[in-house]
Amino acid sequence: MSVDERQEKLIRSLVIQPGRVGQELSTTEFLRQFPASVDESKSLALRLLEDGLAKRDAEVIELGITSGFRFGMREAYIPLLERLAVEDFHFSHEDVVFKLGKLRSPTSVEPLFRASERRHEYLEYNDQYSLRSKIIHALGNIGTLEACSRLEELAQRFEDPELIAKIGRRFRALVETSASEEVRARARDALSRLPPAPDDDDELA
Q1: What gap in Å lies between CA 153 and CA 198, rounded to an integer?
Q2: What residue segments make up the domains of the chain, in order of their start?
Q3: Less Cβ around it within 10 Å: N or C end of the chain?
């Protein structure tokens, strides 16, 4: 879909923008001004993301993510987000990974792992740390055996001790909360091979 300049400003007003004075636009006011029905607003982000992918337009992707955070992203968004996780043309990778972690689809494990292998120039300011941290969290949220396997691979590949410690925390969370005995056992086994973090205790060893 295409949006005009006025609609773009309205979408951006759904969140507080740096340097902009005033509060974010309310949902009611957005629907009145856009205009859109409640049902249309729920599919707005989906249509924007589809269009942004087709056109490889980073700004449209940003608009789609912004509206999706306000109006929600559901199962239908997963294939689009999985594609965006490994695309290089946009600047919304952290938000994409965050949403995949919330949606917790087992199909997202491989795209998330592939996303960890990519380097984006705009994220070099902290050596991709924020993105990689969100990938670790998302894989832990998904919490399947495959996700555990990929977390183990990341622990072997990453050199940053803080990221390795985050992986350990995700494994400890799986040991404590996973409904699957197989996953709990796999997480416990993986945790035993990680270097101990300062806040580790002996009961999970």
Answers
A1: 22
A2: 1-72, 85-198
A3: C
